[in-house]
Amino acid sequence: MLNVAFIAHDRKKEDIVNFAVAYEHVFKDKNLFSTGTTGQRIMEATDLKIHRFLSGPLGGDQQIGALIAQNEMDLVIFLRDPLMAQPHEPDITALLRLCDVHGIPVATNMATAEILVRALDRGDFAWRELVELLKPELK
Fold this sequence. Notes:
This protein is α/β, with parallel strands linked by helices. Helices cover 53% and strands 14% of the residues. Its EC number is 4.2.3.3.
């Protein structure tokens, strides 16, 4: 089963909740993770079950980053607010860097999230399973 993480800055929380509502049918059979408040808001608006970590500024971004570093995350939807300075910006940068290092698709805006979720719905994320199967041969 695929693992998907939801993260949203304060002014993007309503957007991510609406997104989760719209694509609940896609997310219902995935393992879902989130930072604290974002996950709570999504669960209040949907029937989705989400493993919630701490809020982002308290370390939730880093907890999700740890899953990425352990190759236990398949997709990150992180709706960022580019117009608001974040006190935990180094954690955000580290999370995005880990996605790049480990080849994890990450959406930082609604347009990219829409494209990635439609790909998820089509089954386009199967490439990660193939890479895992071939890893012994790639060494």
